[in-house]
Amino acid sequence: MDAKPQRLTATITGEVQAVGFRYWARRSAEDLGLTGSAINNPDGSVSLVAEGPPSGLTELLRRIEAGETPGRVDSVDAAIGDSSESSTGFECL
Q1: Which listed residue (7, 22, 63, 72) is catalytic?
Q2: Taking 70 as the threshold, does the pLDDT of residue 4 lie above it?
Q3: What are the domain boundaries of the chain?
Q4: 6-84 architecture in CATH?
Q5: 63 labelled catalytic
Q6: pTM here?
Q7: Among 15, 17, 42, 75, which one is least packed by beta carbons within 10 Å?
Q8: Nearest to 34 by CA among 58, 53, 9
Q9: Phi-psi region of 74 (alpha: psi -120 to 50; beta: other; left: phi over 0)
Q10: Model confidence pLDDT, tens digit, residues 28-49
Q11: What pLDDT is recorded for position 1?
């Protein structure tokens, strides 16, 4: 039985804009069976929302925190909660 889908919301700071971070996040999320979005913020951070199996969310967060991304991640402010189950696909905004 699959675990109930959940939602990861994260703000990632560091050198994460203009380095392909959002597109890396999309590829990683799709590989893990997740949906959601990544958007550049005016302060230079990236906001990420991903929904799907808890194991996929945990792995995506691990990859981000481990620095397996383009650019440089200085900090990640993340929370996992209930899924809205409203997103389809993964968008880079």
Answers
A1: 22
A2: yes
A3: 6-84
A4: 2-Layer Sandwich (3.30)
A5: no
A6: 0.91
A7: 42
A8: 53
A9: alpha
A10: 999 999 999 999 999 999 999 9
A11: 45
